[in-house]
Amino acid sequence: MTRLKIAPALAPALVAALALVMLAGACGSEDRSLDGIAAGIYSGDCASSNGREVTVYSGRTENLIGPPLEAFACETGTEVAVRWGSSTELALLMSEEGDRTAADVFLSRSPGPVGFLESEGLLGVIDDSVLGLVAATSRSKAGTWVGFSGRKRVLVHNIDTVAADDLPRSVFDLTDDRYRGRVAIPATNGSFIDWFTVFRDQHGSDTAEQWLSDMVDNDARFYPNNRSIVEAAGRGEIDMGLVNHYYQYQEAAASGAGHRAANHDFAADDIGSLLIITAATITSDSGNRRAANELIAYLLSEPVQRYFSENTFEYPLAAGVAPAEILPPLAALEIGSVDFDALGGGFQQSTAIIERSGIYNQ
């Protein structure tokens, strides 16, 4: 029977840092269909096993990417093994494993770890038929990765403590004294690190590093991730913070009117409005390339793209799939203006700059 299972234990030096979770089987002997969120993607009967298997290293969390993987396993009959962890940790694990890795597909919440793997020569080329499912601006020029959803950078703010005329036009405004102690930064979050890497690429490392230093001097507050900032803004613990757009929509849907926060968009040409994409790739030593390409194509299918937009409130990237009505039209820094392929291992330098800035102590 088709099922999702845990990836085999590998690279013991790094395994302790990774979250390993066994997912329930997509199809059991007495249950030949899906339930829950996955059933909204595929509601038919599960297929019998086709004898193929694909191993996924997923930097996207189980609650977000689990339903599409379950739906794929059920609908196609391909067995899916999953290893969960942060995108950065998994990229470093794959680098350590080299050609011994079990991974066929790597799913990253941001392009930085993918660029790192490409610089290490660990990525294969995705089939043209799969790459063609997205616009050229949402895939690698070399065909080594393809984007499957987008998260826009925004400023979440408390609607009771922050007046409309107090909202900044640019992230550069946040170093002003009037924002002293009022802004939260998710400094250890992978999306923030990737955003900072693009910041360095677009404005120069000296300018980006000075901005972060000025933010620390302006008493910016450290939070570990986007969600904790959105929750803190909603309860008035912090006035505002730099996050991905979709966390606000998720929290508002869960908490209703009691959540007192909203998103603010920086100017369309501001680095603070960058659209960061989630990326999928096939490893260079994959022995299951057919199944790997089929899985990535499935992530770009209309039902899965609608799931990303309507359930997780991300922007769909597959050609012809419209975003959910609740999402504002994109007026962000265009993906095509940022050469993600050229960033390579830049996230490692970004992490070093962030660590020495002192933001973790704020």
Written overview of the protein:
Strands 1, 2, 3, 4, 5, 6, 7, 8, 9, 10 and 11 form an eleven-stranded mixed sheet that branches. With 362 residues, this protein is α/β, with parallel strands linked by helices. The protein is built from 13 helices and eleven strands. Helices cover 35% and strands 15% of the residues. Strand 2, helix 3 (62-76) and strand 3 (79-84) form a beta-alpha-beta unit. Helix 7 (190-203) packs across helix 13 (346-357).
What is shown here, in short?
The protein is of the alpha/beta class and 362 residues long. 35% of the residues lie in helices and 15% in strands.
SSE topology sketch:
Elements: E1 4-6, H1 12-15, H2 37-41, E2 53-58, H3 62-76, E3 79-84, H4 87-97, E4 105-108, H5 111-119, H6 128-131, E5 146-158, E6 183-185, H7 190-203, H8 205-217, E7 221-222, H9 226-234, E8 240-244, H10 246-255, E9 261-264, E10 275-282, H11 289-299, H12 302-310, E11 315-316, H13 346-357
Parallel strand pairs: 1-3, 2-3, 2-4, 6-7, 6-8
Antiparallel strand pairs: 4-10, 5-8, 5-9, 5-10, 5-11
Helix pairs in contact: 4-5, 7-8, 7-13
